[in-house]
Amino acid sequence: MDGVIGFEDGEVASLLSSAEGMPTLDIGKRIFCNSAVNMKNIVAVGFDMDYTLAQYKPDTFESLAYDGTVEKLVTNLGYPKELLEWSFDWTYMVRGLVLDKKRGNILKMDRHKYVKVAYHGFRLMSKSEKVATYGNTFTRDAFDGPDYAHIDTLFSLAEAYLFAQLVDFKDKNPEKIS
């Protein structure tokens, strides 16, 4: 801390370790950077979700996101209670997929946006189905906009898995989901 321009030796350290000149904040709004935090007075905890401050266990983190989403679909949006019995396999999906929300398809493309593999829910689409829907060469479709969702982070894997489950469920039970 010594040698900082504009400060005498030792002044910087005393400024950093002193509450003098600091605005008065409610304890619940302060940020603490120590290895142990007493959670008794903490009201909320935020997550950076990019692995810079914390290392996440993907199975635990994604399962919480998945379970919370399913619960909201059932309680807030009126989806069938059967969904609450579903489970999440965090190893099934990978980053780099594109969800075709309009058609219910999950796409794996190459860097030229050629659809190499396509699934409808969990069902692998035949080559003829895939070609009929997306063509067999470079396509001008940018695969973006409101009809598509890109699964480009680890935190989107639960979303993709739930999407596939919902597509399969709707195909088998069209009367249960509008």
Automatic annotation (TrEMBL):
GO terms for molecular function: 5'-nucleotidase activity; metal ion binding. The keyword Transcription regulation does not apply. Keywords: Hydrolase, Magnesium, Metal-binding. Pfam families: 5_nucleotid (PF05761). The keyword Magnesium applies. InterPro entries: HAD-like_sf, HAD-SF_hydro_IG_5-nucl. This is 5'-nucleotidase. It comes from Ambrosia artemisiifolia.
